[in-house]
Amino acid sequence: MKRCKHFFLALILCIGASELFAQDNTNAIVRDDVVFEENDGMVAVEAEYFFKQSKNDIRQWYRTSKNEQAKVGRDEDGPHCKDAGNNAYLEILPDTRVTHDDKLIAGENFSNNAGMMGVLHYKVKINTPGRYYVWARAYSAGAEDNGLHVGIDGAWPETGQRMQWCEGKHSWRWESKQRTAEVHCGEPYLIYLDIEKAGVHEITFSMREDGFEFDRFLLTNEKEFIPQGIGPVVKIAAGKLPESYPVVTENPVSK
């Protein structure tokens, strides 16, 4: 009898630990004192360096790396750590709308209203106020995982809504286009934030479509700038960043 009790106790502890570990990749890995810094009109940030998530009761952002894979409901495509900045990225899950045949449910797997679901928070010190064009690096595997919103200091301006990816499927791709009624694949130069004062600002990203995979973002005051590869080096004004994730030469197999 004692052996059975010990067995079931160990089993419960094991299950509990597994569930806890499964949720670890939603937690922030940087403290709220980490502040990224703009220099010479440019600031770059790894997506996984958010200091908190909010409005994540229906959809959450999960980190994927060599040793971290989310197991949350539907997620048909495998990990894409290879060629991701810092060998890690975020994905908002579960992904219940993969194709046009899947039902669109506003407020669940889709949010055309910025700032309503799955919000990521970052602190950025701006030294040179002005207009900053926002670029994000994403991996899109279909037509229903390629939308995002960006905001600042609790506001969600029209110029930060409906970031859109169409080209470069099944690869990491930088983009800065806004989906419009006239051009569904997005128009360039329409995604930007007007930052009037120098100092620390809170940059936020929120879900538009579930299944979106998010690697990095950057702000630049150079309108014609086009990031290449992984993009600019990440610089901080305060705080300490964690160690880099293990290098991935081939994408891990889905668990």
Descriptive account of the structure:
The structure is a single chain. The chain has 255 residues and is mainly β. The protein has one domain (2-238): Sandwich (Jelly Rolls), CATH 2.60.120.1620. Helices cover 9% and strands 31% of the residues. It is built from 1 helix and 16 strands. The strands form 3 sheets. Strands 1, 3, 6, 8, 9, 14 and 16 form a 7-stranded mixed β-sheet that branches. Strands 2, 4, 5, 7, 10, 13 and 15 form a 7-stranded antiparallel β-sheet that branches. Strands 11-12 form a two-stranded antiparallel sheet. The chain starts with a helix and ends in a 17-residue tail after the last strand. The relative contact order is 0.23. The model is unreliable at 4-22 (pLDDT under 50).
